[in-house]
């Protein structure tokens, strides 16, 4: 990490140097197409300058004198300018004609008709760059250009004039050049001018105005490279020096360039101890120093403790506090409020101010991304509780302990194929990100294991009837594509039934006689238990038998249907199938879905009625601690409990005293026996554990002993 910063900083220094050379050279190197000749005033190119030989002419001089008298008597300066231009038009190649052109330009300028003033002065300087009043004409030309928005032309002319000016005139030209540079977006040049203006200021008022301009430019206008270029070599005696130096320090802070941050702040406090920025600089230096000061027994947790997500934050916190009972570990709770900006602030606080050796959370996707990025920058071990896929790819300081969609799909595919021996599947899923992601994960996992997906149907998230989707799964929707249906239609037509009613009944009978094509053994439905209880009856209507896991049930169905060769299908689901208990004491999934959901299997990250000893111990401890609520723990409480216990175990047993040591210890955690399963962190710092496979029967939900079933399969030689 340090080496990477050194390389970055070296590159940055090279860029600053290169930019400084480029910007220094730019104003003095006119190009053929863009730059203007300094001598001509900025709006005319040197290469195209004509050779006009002007001469004295008595008649022209008389006409000019008469025009001057008329112009002085005319209060309308624009009309007066036209009087001069008539002389110019009549006597173009005379000194009187050029004087008339200059006087017209001055009148347009005084009338604030800057477009005509610019045109007039440009014409004069184009013809005679050595005109006696050329310097004044150039100045007025530049100001006119600035007033009409031609800032780059104005900047080039003004800087050219300032190079040859002195004293108050030079100061005025530099101020105008700075204004033109800012208008043109040339913030580097504008900043240079403002800094010079601050250094040349004679009075306190002038100094304050110049410094204020510098502050405006460094806040959101001038780039980091601009600031670094101007600051390089600047004397601390310049009133603008503290502004630039402190801004650079703040930039280094945001870049996490700790070495240069500390160097810049120490220099600042040494050279400008009485600056208005000094208190902030001291705080920032102390904050940067504290980043490596760790309290080995302080752990932070980032959760939404207020706002719309408060209930889930409180659920996790109950588990965390339960895990730390009886421990001297200090828990610092940071309320993210479900706000990504507050999450970022909280992450910095726990690193700089609280000295936490590690952090738990957050839960929400955007909060987790922000926290993970900062954890990596600040090198704080973060055990996140988010479902966001790929979150640990951000860096080695990011861990995750949470049930993910990919883990669920993998667990279902593994059980269905390696334990049940299924090879062919179908998928019925809601057309929302959750459903699409899980359908894709399951499909990919099945294919990677050598299986096939025979059909996939999507439905709307708010759909309540599923007849069409069920028909499509078994080939009864597009009957015109089936040969047996075409044959049945021909048979009805061959009967030559003339009565319309009888013919319609015959066609309905023929349609009901078309056998379903059930070429899959398992059907994956990644949806909420409420929707599942609506889907399963529609499947039964299309003769998809899902409730025949008991041989007696299968025999009963054979007798009822008169079909000996029944193809049964096992339904598979995700943790969204977990439902609260209804009035009967049974899960609402079973109350609503009835016999159509029995024999189904779904996966979860926690099961309150599990027979696993670690899970039973957690449930008992939780019930004792929160018996006044009358509620059992769920996945969030269990995940919070396990995550906090992992961190506690590492702190108690390995006693890391740095965040790097804490990260190494956490990465090496293996076979942690927790409420959510025996957990180890893999090489991607993802929690690997055996999830809970749950089966549904008419008495409720039961945990499947996967190891026992696998052993039975091996023992049978299947």
Automatic annotation (TrEMBL):
The keyword Signal applies. It holds the Pfam family Peripla_BP_6. Residues 298-473, 589-700 form the Leucine-binding protein domain. It comes from the Bacteria. Gene3D superfamilies: 3.40.50.2300, Tetratricopeptide repeat domain (1.25.40.10). TPR repeats lie at residues 98-131. InterPro entries: BCAA_transport (IPR051010), Leu-bd (IPR028081), Peripla_BP_I (IPR028082), TPR-like_helical_dom_sf (IPR011990), TPR_rpt (IPR019734). Residues 27-54 are annotated as: Disordered. Keywords: Signal, TPR repeat. Transmembrane segments: none annotated. CDD domains: PBP1_YraM_LppC_lipoprotein-like. The keyword Phosphoprotein does not apply. Belongs to the leucine-binding protein family. This is Penicillin-binding protein activator.
